[in-house]
Specification:
2 copies of one chain form a homodimer. Chain A has a single domain, classed as Farnesyl Diphosphate Synthase (Orthogonal Bundle), CATH 1.10.600. Chain A has 15 helices and 2 strands. Chain A has helices at residues 25-47, 52-62, 69-82, 87-107, 124-127, 130-151, 155-169, 174-183, 191-216, 221-248, 251-254, 260-263, 269-273, 275-292, 301-312, and strands at 117-118, 121-122. By secondary structure, chain A is mainly α. The relative contact order of chain A is 0.13. Chain A has a two-stranded antiparallel sheet. The interface between A and B is large, with 50 and 50 residues.
Chain lengths: 315, 315
């Protein structure tokens, strides 16, 4: 079902940190890992029992050409700790991608960010209708927990993954950030507020990805905690880069409506601190993320490259 | 936080099958079990970490005076199999109530059933706004899985409960039924379509409640399967009774807008077969549900009474 990952959009990632690495080893592995996420999503969706009408909605949302950054992070953190991407990590990556996708589907609704365009295609509520987008998002969120409960090898691992995902995506994580983000359109931005919103809305899902990968890789608690720190930094930097792109890029490059943050008076780093300070902040976060990986040595090279690439991507 | 269960609305349940049992043993136990669900919800909500703004939304939705029928079913099915309501059943009941409540919050949205009134109070999107209702529903759904993953004693039990809840509430359960229900407003109703909608939209959550209770009670697979059969029948009958009430009762009695099904050209038993045939069908389902409980003997008396009371309630 799925198109090649990053096809059409998100190609900036391939440029790596110097913008000239489209075909190097890092880029090839990024592409291959994204493709593995897509194949897993396709296999899971094809094998779950559900009416064709529901499957069509979920397929539409999941096969749009997303960057798969968070789910690749699951795979790579597992590989870092146990030397390979195991079956649990594939399922965890698919579950995380489902939760990320549900959040986009609901976020695009008219009552929320009201965006007709997502990943270069009509948003779910434009391709279908609002009720279907609400229910489709609900179905994706539910399915994420279902596959963790039914397809992870050992029950204690499944329970840890579900707890991590629910905590980071829920009332004290992503949802808290989204509510604060909507609320912030009515107040003056501050650094503390920005950090709160970015941490919850975005960075906790990156932390979650790193933690889930670490859990699947059988890591020690201290190793998983280190990966969580890395994930938080990368997620914060990613959001700043994303907000900078909203200012500098066009809708075609973004795959979603550009310039919306300013029109909605969103509280973002560029709007509060300007572009140059935002760039410095993103770079600092990438450096810190790379520093956190130091104890893992050479085998963390892809994660180092990912931190840099995400913050320096053309989009 | 929570009001006395059934307060204000749902009092018809206390009338039992002959309408005169407000103070008998069954009614007292029903009230006590509903109160236990409320206390558990309150305790869980108070002890979960989340911003006050999010807690206020979840509190508003969870403390509205619902009937707690599904969650009481969890408690009673556990008690049937192991002789008492254990801690796992309390958590499972709270999780099920959260999922039921999220489904009401999203169902009331303007893009769905567009109802301003729920359980006698302004719907979540009227008390707050649409974005908050979408996110609040998402938070409830996520929290249900979080408490199952973090508060159930044994990981294998937690995983079974999560799988059951996700299956029955998800893309091949409640959500499939809700999508079909919306779609059915555009087509002529048939018995097969009605049964499909009712089974998925309503009965699977009753089945889920019975199964979760059975799992918490440590039941044999055959016992849990029997409780599932009972739950499905009770759920189907409950939906028919609900649709009959939409025709015969006023908004004040219902706690939600009355007569909406007919105006929305909803596909319901009364609209397709008329009130008298609907009543006969609901009674037949209650009798079948009672019959399924036969092997459990006298200790299933409350579940028998519940089947009858739900179908004969004034609302």
């Amino acid at each position: 079902m799925c198109k090649a990952p990053f096809e059409g959009h998100g190609q900036g990632l391939y440029q790596g940190e110097r913008g000239d690495m489209r075909d190097d080893n890092f880029s090839r592995q990024l592409r291959a890992s994204g493709q593995l996420v897509n194949v897993t999503l396709e296999r899971v969706l094809a094998s779950q029992r559900m009416p064709d009408e529901v499957r069509a909605v979920l397929r539409y949302t999941l096969e749009s050409p997303g960057k798969r950054v968070r789910s690749v992070l699951v795979l790579w953190c597992c590989e870092l700790l146990c030397g390979r991407v195991n079956r649990d990590a594939e399922i965890a990556a698919a579950a995380l991608e489902m939760v990320h996708t549900y959040s986009l589907v609901h976020d695009d609704l008219p009552a929320m960010d009201n965006d007709d365009l997502r990943r270069g295609l009509p948003s779910c509520h434009k391709a279908f209708d609002e009720a279907t987008a609400i229910l489709g998002g609900d179905a994706l969120l539910t399915l994420a927990f279902e596959i963790l409960a039914s397809r992870i090898g050992e029950a204690p691992v499944a329970v840890r993954l579900i707890r991590q995902l629910a905590e980071d995506a829920g009332a004290n994580g992503m949802i808290a950030g989204q509510l604060a983000d909507l609320e912030a359109e009515r107040v003056a931005g501050s650094e503390a507020l920005l950090e709160y919103i970015h941490t919850n809305k975005t960075a906790k899902m990156f932390r979650c990805a790193a933690a889930m990968g670490g859990i699947c890789g059988g890591g020690e608690d201290s190793e998983v905690a280190r990966l969580c720190e890395y994930g938080l930094k990368v997620g914060l930097g990613f959001q700043i880069a994303d907000d900078m792109l909203d200012v500098s890029a066009g809708s075609k490059e973004l795959g979603k409506t550009a310039g919306k943050d300013a029109r909605a008076a969103k509280c973002t780093y560029p709007s509060v601190f300007g572009m140059e300070a935002s760039r410095r902040c993103a770079e600092k976060l990438a450096d810190e993320a790379v520093g956190i990986l130091e104890p893992f040595g050479a085998k963390a090279e892809n994660l180092r490259r990912l931190a840099k690439a995400l913050l320096n991507r053309a989009r």
